[in-house]
Amino acid sequence: MIDENVSYGVVERLQVKGYEVISISDLSKRGMPDEDIYALVLGEQAILVTRDYHFTNPIRFPAEKTRGIVYI
After folding, report:
1. Is 41 helix (H, G, I), strand (E, B) or coil?
2. Going by C-beta distance under 8 Å and a sequence separation of 6 or more, which residues neighbour residue 23?
3. Does residue 3 fall inside a structural domain?
4. Number of domains in the chain
5. Would residue 33 count as lying in a domain?
6. d(CA 69, CA 54)
7. Has residue 2 been placed in a domain?
8. What is the pLDDT along the chain (72 residues), one digit of tens a residue?
9. Looking at the domain assignment, is residue 34 inside a domain?
């Protein structure tokens, strides 16, 4: 899952490489609170790629409950 703050070019490049990618921007859910994004990642059992430093807080957003959180 690609957060809306990550360039859409990343989405396109991952798709070209054959990865299944869900973009928050494509879901028409722009401006979602971080907690809702995290819940979506949990529900999809996805890896989150984000530029939002809030997701580096292991108390609010424990990465071990997800398939991973990649902060770029």
Report:
1. helix
2. 1, 2, 4, 8, 11
3. no
4. 1
5. yes
6. 11
7. no
8. 999 999 999 999 999 999 999 999 888 767 889 999 999 999 999 999 999 999 999 999 999 999 999 999
9. yes
